[in-house]
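Provenance

Sequences were taken from public entries as deposited. Structures were produced by running a predictor on each sequence independently, with no templates supplied. The record for MBL fold metallo-hydrolase from Marinicella sediminis is shown for reference.
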Amino acid sequence: MKIHHLNGYIQSIYLVEYPHGLLLLDGCCRADVPMLKRFFKDNLKRPLTDLKALVVTHMHPDHAGAAHKLRKLTACQIISAHKESQWYRGMNGLLMHWLDVVLTVYVARRLNKSVKNVWYSRKLKPDVRLTDGAVIPGFPEWQVLETPGHTDRDLSVYHAESQQVYVADLLIKLRHGFICPFPVFHPNKYRRSLQKIADLDSRQVLLAHGGMLTMHAGDFADLIKRAPSKPRTPLRATVSKFKRLMGQSS
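Predicted structure for MBL fold metallo-hydrolase:
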């Protein structure tokens, strides 16, 4: 088993290689598909159809954006959390989807990346829905762990033998240290998810934003202590900013 760490459009990509096929630990950005094609051809010397499965840890553009496109190209299975409803549902979901797409382009520009098409369907059509602790079909060494908080359906992906866990956006590493993601829709669940990963005592933690690194119990304890006690969502942030602006003008 070999894990390839690739630089995606705005996030790290983790591609797990086995002789019998490859597993993507997340659904990437739509803009990452051409790069993945080149990597399979030029670096792996394998056809793209050797991609057998990918996990969508949650529905944000850099984690679900390439899922449907890659399945169309490879016939791979899309794995998701066991949720019957869509994340981006209703009028609020439609607006939130648009906002998340715009924010993805904004982040890319902050990273000095050119503007690329990151549009994708807000409705995921997974092949397999898994619950906490279930193994990934075709890759039984890997299991999904439910780690909600950032959204209601976040997954982490755990390889017990090597003590490595991919946590997607559960936490973010910046130059000055670790921070919580934005948004955090479910703060109580978020803190429990952090503790759940801390209890694994993994040798290596794989972040979508921060790379592959070693973390210690103190890192998690500090982040749990600083985690929000109330939801931090785009709507709440907009209302708060509006109130501040009104206060300054009065």
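Residues 241 and 247 are 10 Å apart (CA to CA).
Helices lie at 33-44, 61-64, 67-74, 90-110, 187-200, 217-226, 234-249.
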